[in-house]
Amino acid sequence: MTNRPSEFDLIATYFAPLSASEPGAFQLSDDAAIVTPPPGQSLVVTTDALVEGVHFLSSDAPEDIAAKLLRVSLSDLASMGARPASYSLAIAVPAGITSEWFKAFSQNLAEDQQEFAITLIGGDTVSTTGPLTLSLNAMGFVETGNGLRRNGAQIGDDIWVSGTIGDGALGLLVAKAELTDLKSSQSDYLLSRYRRPEPRLKLGLELLDRAHAAIDISDGLIADLGHICETSTVGAEINIADLPLSDAAAAALSREPDLIDLVLGGGDDYELLFTAPSSFEPDVPSLKKRTETSLTKIGSITDTPSIRIFDQNGGEYSPVKKGFTHF
Amino acid sequence: MTNRPSEFDLIATYFAPLSASEPGAFQLSDDAAIVTPPPGQSLVVTTDALVEGVHFLSSDAPEDIAAKLLRVSLSDLASMGARPASYSLAIAVPAGITSEWFKAFSQNLAEDQQEFAITLIGGDTVSTTGPLTLSLNAMGFVETGNGLRRNGAQIGDDIWVSGTIGDGALGLLVAKAELTDLKSSQSDYLLSRYRRPEPRLKLGLELLDRAHAAIDISDGLIADLGHICETSTVGAEINIADLPLSDAAAAALSREPDLIDLVLGGGDDYELLFTAPSSFEPDVPSLKKRTETSLTKIGSITDTPSIRIFDQNGGEYSPVKKGFTHF
Asked: Would you say A136 and A225 are in contact if contact means Cβ atoms under 8 Å apart?
C-alpha cells in the first residue's frame, strides 16, 4: 500500500494502537477522551505546532519529525516539573503523504511514548492543500499548588543550564549545509541534537523543590533568560566563558567565532535554564548523577532590569548580529 | 495597523486577554498552563482541526471561523455530558492575515467564551506557507466514572435527536451557491446553521443519567448512528417521516427531494443523537423546556447488525447518491 489511506484507516491502523495503555482514550473511538488526574494532582497543559518548511525541512525523515514534535512538548512539561501523562495530535496531511510515512511516524511515537511514559489519547486527522502541519497538545501531572514557574527568580540566585548550549541552532546550520567544515562525527552529533532534543524530565522533577524559576530554552538562551527576568522583574549577568559547549559546538566556534551569537540566541536547545539559591550548589554533584544530565552555573540574577553578557576578558559583550533582544 | 504583528504581539494583544479568567493560564506567559479539576471530576479532552479551503471557505469571515472552530469542539464536550472548562489553540498563519483579522477572530472567541463558560489557556501561533490551519484542544469536566459514551445503546432503546437535521449540509450548499432557489430568510437560516452550530451543552448534562449512548452528529446522521451501533454491537431502524426538519430544509426538500440523502448523510449538524429506554419519553416535555432544545424520536435500536431506513410509505429506503455507509 503506497497510497494515502482514509482517516478511519489511519486512526485504526496507526494511531489507535498508540492509545492502548490509556483506557480513557476509548481506543480513539469516542467523541473525546476522559483523563483522571491522581488525587491531589493538577494537569499541566502545553501546545506546540510544527509546519513543514518552517519548523522542519521537507526532506526530514518522519521518525525525526515525530521525535521533534513530541519532545518539544515534553520539554515544556519538564520545565514545569510535570510528569508526562497523555497527548492529543492534530495533523493536516498533504496529498503526497503515504502509508509508509505514517508507519514510520507512528512507530517513532510508539518508541518515544515508551521512553517518556506518555500515551496518545485523541486528535484529528484532516487534509490540507498546504504543507504538512502538526499540532500536539501534551498533558502532564504535577502536585496541585506546585509546578515550576518562570516568575520566581530572586536577586542573588545563581543561573544554571542543563546539558550544552547552541547544538540545536548549529545542527540546523548543518542540516541546511551552511556549516560544512566539521568532522562527520561532529556534524552528526549537532544534527541529532537539532532533530531529537532530549527533554529533561527527570531534572524538572528534581528541581520542583529546589529551583526558584525555570524555563526550557526554545527561543534562545538570552531570549528565554529574558522571559524569566521579565516575569520575575529582575535582571541577569552571564559569562560567555562559563557556557557549556559540546565538543562539536566548540570546534565550530573555534573556526567561526561569530557563531557565538547563534549559541546565545539561536534557540532549539530544549535544555532547562533555571535559577536557584546558592544552597543549591552542594546538591549538584548528586543531582547530575541521578538525572544523568550535566549542570553548569553560567551567571547570577541581579536587580538591574537588563541582561548583561560578559566575554572571556570580562568586557561587556554586544552581539555581532541580530537574532535576540536584550528585552 | 494592517500588517501582521509578531507572535509576541499577537499573544499579548489578542490572546492573553482571553485567558484572564483562568489564573492557571498565567496570562499565556509560561511554558504551560496548570488546570485543576474540581474534586471528584475527570477531564474530557477533544481535538478538532480546521483547514482553509477544506473545512471553511477562504471568503468566510473570521468571526464565523472562530465560532465554528470553538463550537465544533464544544459539541464534542456536549456529547460526553461535560461542562466546558478551557481550551488551547494552535494557529498556522499565512502571510495575508492581518491584525484586523485577529481582532475580529479573537473578539468572537471572547463572546463565545462568555456564552459557553470556557477560557483560553494556551496554544501556539506559527507561520505557514499554506492555508490558514487551526487546531483546537478543548477540555471539560465530568464526574469521574460518569460521562456519556457511544457504546451503551441497548436493544429496544428509542433513538432521539435534538434540534433539526440537515441544515448544516444544506447551509454549505447555500454557501457554495449550489442551492439558490430559497427565500433569503431561508438561505440565511441554513447558512447560519452551517457557520454557527449550537453546541447542546445543557442537553448533554441532562442526558448524563438518562441516555444509554450519545454522539454529536458531525459525520452525518447515518454515519454517526453507525458509530453508536458499531461500538454498542446493535442495529437500528429509523423513519424518514419522523426526521425533524427546519422550515428551510423542508422547503429545499420539497423542491429537490433527492436532497434527503444530504439530510441523512451530509453531516455538520452538531445536534445530539442519543438512545434512551422508553422510560425517558415522559421526561421529554420538561426536558425540552429546561434545555430550550427540541427533541424528536426517530427510530429504535434493534438486534440486527445493520441500519434500516424506512420511507414515508413504510418501504425500505436506499440512498439515491453516495455520501454515507450502512456500516
From this structure: no
Interface mutation vs chain A, best among B137, B149, B216, B269, most A CBs within 10 Å: B137
Of A90, A147, A215, which has the smallest distance from its Cβ to B34's Cβ? Answer: A147
Tell me the pLDDT tens digit for each residue of A200-251: 999 999 999 999 999 999 999 999 999 999 999 999 999 999 999 999 999 9
- Tell me the chain A residues in contact with residue B130 when contact means C-beta distances shorter than 8 Å: 51, 128-131, 133
Q: For residues A106 and A93, what is the distance between their CA atoms, to the nearest angstrom?
A: 14
Do A7-143 and A158-310 agree at the fold level? no
- Which residues of chain B lie closer than 8 angstroms to A129, CB-CB? 51, 53-54, 130-131
Cβ contact A30–B149 (<8 Å): yes
* pLDDT confidence of residue B33: 93
Mutate to test the interface with A, among B27, B43, B76 (most CBs of A within 10 A): B43
Note the ipTM here. 0.92
Mutation for testing the B interface, residue in A8, A9, A28, A34 having most B CBs under 10 Å: A34
For strands A307-310 and A235-239, give the pairing: parallel
**CB-nearest partner of B32 from A29, A77, A131:** A77
User: Above 50 in pLDDT, residue A326?
Assistant: no
pLDDT tens-digit series, residues B27-75: 998 889 999 999 999 999 999 999 999 998 888 999 999 999 999 999 9
B88: nearest CB among A31, A34, A137: A137
Residue A24 and residue B35: Cβ atoms within 8 Å? no
Other CB atoms within 10 A of residue B279 CB: 9
CA distances A45 to A216, B96, B156, Å, are: 15, 30, 42
8 Å CB contact of A54 and B126: yes
Domain positions in chain B are 7-143, 158-310
Return d(Cα A147, Cα A140) in angstroms, integer: 11
Cβ–Cβ under 8 Å, residues A287 and A140: no
B49: nearest Cα among B123, B142, B149: B123
| Residues A7-143, CATH architecture | 2-Layer Sandwich (3.30)
List pLDDT tens digits, range B87-143.
999 999 999 899 999 999 999 999 999 999 999 999 999 999 999 999 999 999 999
Nearest to A31 by CA among B120, B195, B216: B216
Judge: A49–B92 Cβ closer than 8 Å, yes or no: yes
What's the gap in Å between the CA of A183 and the closest CA on chain B? 34
Query: Confidence class of residue B6 from pLDDT cuts 50, 70 and 90?
Result: confident
- Mean model confidence pLDDT for chain B: 93
User: Hey, which CATH number is domain B158-310, 3.90.650.10, 1.10.287.110, 3.40.50.10240, 3.40.50.300?
Assistant: 3.90.650.10
Of chain A, the percentage scoring pLDDT greater than 90 comes to 87
